[in-house]
Amino acid sequence: MRGVTGRLMLLDTASLYFRAYFGVPESVKAPDGTPVNAVRGLLEFIDRLVKDHRPDHLVACMDADWRPRWRVELIPSYKAHRVAEAHETGPDEEEVPDTLSPQVPIIEAVLDALGIARVGVARYEADDVIGTFTARAKGPVDIVTGDRDLYQLVDDAREVRVLYPLKGVGSLQLTDEAWLREKYGVDGKGYADLALLRGDPSDGLPGVPGIGEKTAAKLLAEFGDLAGILAAVDDPKAKLTPAQRKRLDESRPYLAVAPKVVRVADDVPLPDVDTVVPRTPRDPVALEELAAHRGLGGSLHRLLATLGA
């Protein structure tokens, strides 16, 4: 991503196509009867995002490994409840609706034919790809995701914000540090500590028993960060209740590894890709074949018009 100085938009692609799948009726099908609701919904999302926010650079970030083994080795419960089939070698299979799985290769083929950069890196989640692109960006960054974990990347000084879809992508929560402080009492850097203290059942993160979101926010306000909280546990003069001190002390093994699991990586070996928003399709012949065979119709044509505008 040499020379990325304009506005960079990073798509948490799986998060968006899951939303598209559940937001667009399954009756939307290709001529051969294959459901394409997630494909068409994602194209509509991208069209609206490019039209409304006019990024100079655009990357569809992918989960090459949705449950990296190095995270599971640290916290075995990490996303365990979402495993459809475990594998000794290679990524575990995630539970995905039967009619969504066949649409993912179509989404990838359409993105490639359009010329929209699509990046997934072995052993890493899309969150980590997003974290690394964000760390390397020289200009403003818009992260589009339905995953609150990425709030940890919000940074007003660097103009990094999260666009969180509330309904489709027509209604977005523009998440900056002021919004985070009002909602959670922390800034972007503090959100990861809040999340690991609170826990997250949807990701299989246990958190610290008895420490909910409000208590975690109060502890971070009082002691600054996780290291400050753990230092307070060892300080008999620190303002902790006996129950808080006991629970935090007993949770030290979890708290020793949770930061590496919860915090997104910023050192992923990214491929050298052209991230500039394409004005014309990279492979127009393949795109036309996909449009005809998959019945992508108006959704694709509207996006093409927006990209070329």
Give a short overview.
With 309 residues, the chain is an alpha/beta fold. It has helices at residues 13-23, 37-53, 69-74, 103-114, 126-136, 177-184, 188-198, 213-223, 226-233, 242-250, 252-262, 284-294, 297-308, and strands at residues 8-12, 57-61, 83-85, 93-94, 117-119, 141-144, 160-167, 171-175.
> Rough shape?
globular
Strand elements, count: 8
- Please mark out the parts with pLDDT under 50 across 5 or more consecutive residues, or reply none: none
Please summarize the sheet with the most strands.
Answer: 6 strands, mixed
Biggest sheet strand order reads 5-2-1-6-7-8
- The percentage of residues in β strands lies in 5-15%
Structural class label = alpha/beta
Straight-line distance between termini: 23 Å
Q: Return the string of H and E elements.
A: EHHEHEEHEHEEEHHHHHHHH
Alpha plus pi helix count: 13
Radius of gyration: 21 Å
Overall pLDDT metric: 95
Summarize the SSE layout with pairings.
Layout: E1 8-12, H1 13-23, H2 37-53, E2 57-61, H3 69-74, E3 83-85, E4 93-94, H4 103-114, E5 117-119, H5 126-136, E6 141-144, E7 160-167, E8 171-175, H6 177-184, H7 188-198, H8 213-223, H9 226-233, H10 242-250, H11 252-262, H12 284-294, H13 297-308
Parallel strand pairs: 1-2, 1-6, 2-5, 6-7
Antiparallel strand pairs: 3-4, 7-8
Helix pairs in contact: 1-2, 2-4, 2-13, 4-12, 7-8, 7-11, 8-9
Describe, in plain words, how this protein is organized in 3D.
This protein has 309 residues and is α/β, with parallel strands linked by helices. It is 45% helix and 11% strand. It contains 13 helices and 8 strands. The strands form 2 sheets. It has a 6-stranded mixed beta sheet with strand order 5-2-1-6-7-8. Strands 3-4 form a two-stranded antiparallel sheet. Strand 7 (160-167) and strand 8 form a beta hairpin. Helix 1 (13-23) packs across helix 2 and helix 2 (37-53) runs parallel beside helix 13. The two termini are 23 Å apart.
